[in-house]
Amino acid sequence: MLVTGCAPGETQTAEPVAEEGLPGYGRTEAEKLHDKEVLAEVFLNENELETIAALCDLILPATAMIGGALEAEVPAFIEFIVKDMPNHQLPIRGGLAWLDNHSLKAHNLEFKKITLDQQKAICDQIAYPGKTAPDMMPGEKLFTRMRNLTLTGYYTSKVGIEDLGYKGNVANTWDGVPQEILDEQGLAYEPEWLAKCIKPSQRGSVAEWDADGNLLN
Amino acid sequence: MATKILAEAGFDVAVLEAGPFFDPKQDEHRNQFRWPYESPRRGASSDRRSFGDFDAAYGGWNIEGEPFTNAEGTDFWWFRSRMLGGRTNHWGRISLRFGPLDFKRKSVDGLGDDWPIGYDDVKPYYDKVDKLIGVFGSRENIKNEPDGFFLPPPKPRLHEMYYINGARKAGIPVIPSRLSILTKRINEERGLCFYCGQCNRACQWYADFSSGTCLIFPAQKNGGRVQLFTDAMVSEVTTDKEGKATGVTYINKQDKKTYHLKAKTVVLAASACSTARIMLNSKSSVHQDGLGNSSGLVGRYLHDSTGASRAVFIPQLMDRKIYNEDGVGGMHVYTPWWLNDAKLDFPRGYHIEVWGGMGMPSYGFGFNPNDLNKVVGGAIGGYGDSLRDDIKKYYGSVVGISGRGESVPQRDNYCEIDNEVVDQWGIPVLKFNYQWTKHEVNQAKHMQDTFEEVLSATGGTLLGDKPGKDSDYGLTAPGQIIHEVGTTRMGNDPKNSVTNKYNQLHDCENVFVMDAGPFVSQADKNPTWTILALAWRASDYLVEQVKKRNI
What we know:
The complex is a heterodimer. Chain A is mostly helical.
């Protein structure tokens, strides 16, 4: 947990959590100090965070099977990363302001307050690079950045990794591509190549060689 | 390596490290098996850790308070890792022997210089390093790619099978890679590889090579008298009025005070450029231009490997069934240089590394999730559930290859002391002067032509435009491949070299350089295995000279 839940506005209460919210793995003193400072900073305001949450939910909503960007606490990730990577700050702040201006002109309400259908109607004009009207380009820039951050925040979260189905990051013994996959791909290992490779049963014994470098066991 | 050999020979060894202690076995230092969400920036790189939050190397292209400078027109990148074991904690573990031709390139192409030693001088030490540390590979009997005492290699992964097929069609050799990772037990002390693919995070089981886990800790454990001085930034080697080394001066980064450590012999292994910096900053009445610098060559002949890359999208790898293919921390297959006998418009060669697969996501994963729809068809951008499908459709469908080549060492490519800038410890910093020549640019062009041919032969669609002349064919900036070598090159003539063929300074018999500084040239092979072999050889020589009372 970096900061408290994803609900808008709650990040202001993050400060007490920040201490224990520091990463629990090998950090240098300079890194610990930096992360602590960034966690304690406030950049995005309440309205911006609520708008980000609305966009996150539009970009990756929950499905019947698995949680979406909000369940994966993506807004909290974005809240952090915008502070950690200052190059995001102006484009996000400016982009969100543009989005509200646009929404106010069309509906006399900020983006987060218009209906889902109205939100989608705006997104449809800014979510498809190459098809965006020239005067909507600021919206496309914002939406592309938000899509990137939402997807990267989601697929690096516990929920997102489950959705992706990534199977690694555990101790195992690699013994080649599963046969069924090879069959599907119409591929096969070359016997000569395979003969050179490690067999799982061979792993445990301490290596011995003859004088020419031929492995004996 | 010197620490282990000298301690085991009964010497009292003091190791000075400019950064903190590091042991990946200690949980507070462990990055291995962390999940991306354990990092608030999801593993992204930062000014504090260039290769990302989970990479083992502290620092990187930037070290706060310890700058370096580039001369006008130079864009040298210098990667430093301040910690016990330094860059060996995160390196690629590619462990290639130099071949007979690699020590005698001038005799082949007339450029640069030959080494004062040949493959036969180093072979016994390569053999010993293989057996002590462990390297997997296969016996191939290829000219200039000497075989060693190998552990068996892991089987290729799916994307590597596509590369093998492409290389076969293009008529380019491809063989199992050679990495210092334990696929099989080498002794009872170190653990076996468990295929997490995270060697760059440093292994808590010591199943890959780093100098801390495989050399310094065992030297301590074997009863060697080894004393570690961490956070000890060496500023200079001190000498007496005859010019003989008396020890080193260092700054303790904790109390910020300066200390002197007496020594009978000094071994410098701070990395080629840091060693040159220490030597150039060690001026005395005898060594007026810096220790060991009567030739004026300390810092000169600095050279890095060349690099260039390209990637391919393979439609057959869309919508993959997911299984764990993390494998070892690096490629399972590679292409060694195959054109030693060809007439080309550049000298020396390169090898090709392969990457791809269904890796663990980190910051950046999911950016532009459906750009490949440009190739396959379908909408670009969008939002909602279709994005989940796009992510899964393209996960693991891109394969990349990178060339790593030999550059020709130049006298005019060098690092020197920048008299106008000091670091936070008051030590004058290095200034780099470095330009690639037409040789490296032509080599990069050849790489791009080869990449196009091999990747096209995989049946996939090449990504991005082929880098052309305007970008020097995608040639990396000097320093970026992090193979800095040559700054204290060895030779028989003291006027034309800094050390003799045993890594010993011509000008100062009790100072040795045991990093890559003494390299006369560096082949297209990653330097680590040769650094280790030469350091062992030099340490044996040092012990013998002390026994004979010559030092």
